[in-house]
Amino acid sequence: MKLLVGTYDGAAAVYRVDGAQAVNLTAALPQIGADLSALIASPELMAQAAAVEGAGVAVAEITPELPVNAPGKILCLGLNYIEHIKEGGYDIPDYPAIFMRTRQSIMAAGAPLVRPTCSDKLDYEAELMIVVGKGGRHISEADALDHVFGYTVFNDGSVRDFQRKTHQWTPGKNFDQTGAIGPFVVTPDDLPEGAKGLKIESRVGDEILQSSNTGNMIWGAAQTIAIMSEFTTLEPGDLIALGTPPGVGHAKKPDPRWLRPGEVVEIEIEGIGICASPIMDEADLAKAAE
């Protein structure tokens, strides 16, 4: 099932996407609410949602919202594609780089991805993201995919000079409104096991920035869930980003390729969809809010 959380005609709702049309599940089943939390918590409600019939709304007329409005944790994996590791000048690790993002750093697909006033080194990172369904601790790799509610698209926008100010990547990965998520969440039954073998790409207009395949990840979805649950209890609605392939802006030769205000960056994953974000300068965003 392909799901979309969004606003149409002034009301936020959960939609089931069928091609270019979307059926309002919240209108049919009010207990679903305005994000995916209730569906994640209830397989029975998911079964009811699959059977909902009704007139559709054009997907293009729905403004995306975050799939989960208040995720408990946003866990991120770094250095998960060998060629990306090499372009960054790192050694291939035995254990993945792991960092966390704050709620303020993420936003829905379609919302501006903000270049901060203190830096012009805003980079893009195309990533597959897991929406955790069933929680747990010490989850085995063999059982890990049973804990996936769905998969979505993530742009791990990174402010590179701040990322490199410290051995911990936290500053460069947590500027407000730099991590775009969505707009679609696709359940595992509609994708290959572990969402492997999917084309993943980033681009601005006709300029292809990254192009790879999720089958090239060192740590796949199952391994990552097992690794994360060794040190923290995963909870329903947690988000886990799985790292980016080669082609990021800071590694472009002869000059880095930073995102610039006025551009629209698109992240596309085969079978899931496109996460598009207009780039806006922080100062211009503040003026627009006045």
Automatic annotation (TrEMBL):
Any one biological process term the GO annotation gives: carboxylic acid metabolic process
One Pfam family linked to the record: FAA_hydrolase
The keyword Lyase is assigned to this record: yes
EC number: 4.3.2.3
GO molecular function: isomerase activity; metal ion binding; ureidoglycolate lyase activity
Keywords associated with the record: Lyase, Metal-binding
Fumarylacetoacetase-like C-terminal domain mapped to chain residues: 73-279
InterPro entries assigned to the protein according to its UniProt record, in alphabetical order: FAH (IPR051121), Fumarylacetoacetase-like_C (IPR011234), Fumarylacetoacetase_C_sf (IPR036663)
Keyword Metal-binding recorded: yes
Enzyme class: lyase
Family affiliation: Belongs to the FAH family.
Stated name of the protein: Ureidoglycolate lyase
